[in-house]
Known about the structure:
The mean pLDDT is about 95. This protein is of the alpha+beta class. It folds into two domains: about 5-155, 3-Layer(aba) Sandwich (Rossmann fold); about 165-260, Beta Barrel (Elongation Factor Tu (Ef-tu), domain 3). Strand 11 (about 200-205) and strand 12 form a beta hairpin. Helix 1 (about 20-30) packs parallel to helix 4 (about 130-140). Strands 8, 9, 10, 11, 12, 13, 14 and 15 form an eight-stranded antiparallel beta sheet that branches. The chain has a seven-stranded mixed beta sheet with strand order 2-1-3-5-4-6-7, with helices on both faces. The longest helix is centred in the middle third of the chain and has 14 residues, at about 130-140. The radius of gyration is 20 Å and the shape is elongated. It has helices at about 20-30, 45-55, 100-105, 130-140, 245, and strands at about 5-10, 35-40, 65-70, 80-85, 90-95, 110, 150-155, 165-170, 170-180, 185-190, 200-205, 205-210, 225-230, 235-240, 255-260.
Amino acid sequence: MATPLIALITDFGWKDGYVGAMKGVILSINPSCQIFDVAHEIEAHDVTGAALVLESVFPYFPPRSIFLVIVDPGVGGNRRGIVVKAGDKLLVGPDNGVFSLVLQSCAFEAYEITEERYMLPKVSATFHGRDVFAPVAAHLTIGVRPEQVGPRLDPTELKFIPMPMPRKQGQETIGQVIYVDRFGNLITNLKQEDFRGEDVLIEVEGEEIYGIKRTYQEGQPGEVIALWGSHGRLELAIREQSLKRTKGWSVGTEVRVKPRPR
């Protein structure tokens, strides 16, 4: 049997000891657990950003991996903690929509975390990542089953974030930027099935981008380009520069795509 693996995604960063505290809890319960840092620089409270990062890495982890995702602006409020069995992997975290994109594409079972025996003896109102979610994830690595953490939930009860969808307007497909990566590249909500072909005209804030490139290197210095990113979404970038910093475009910026005039 493979060594249990917990993959961490948080908005905690590295300045403080929050990530370290969670790892300490996990290792105190299961010293042989593997802990893999996926991302800790998610923008503070950016549930959508965390959902996109989770979606981008989820398929590449081995069976039985446990994703511990803590981007939790509602900590201490009335949002639930949940364990979700998604295919052959598990998700642990707040029921605030952070698992939305993964759960849209797979069958799943969800359980509310209510069993106090799998939490730390004292639970802080402001750090459920350490006191609730980390110990629950650790107990899952040593044989606790998802159904033991609490009652099963109807899938329709879970929180799903309202991801903006592309829309059609005549020959145009209109989308928007939904995430900015650390390089300043802009990730949109447009996928290849949203429009046909790559000989297109893309308009952003009055600027025109012609066609879709295959790699970043195909762009000329200072040229704004579009390409299909590794996440399968249309991405806007400037070669070896931050597009966000250069143009000021960011989450919510509208992106229009239409057939290129002949």
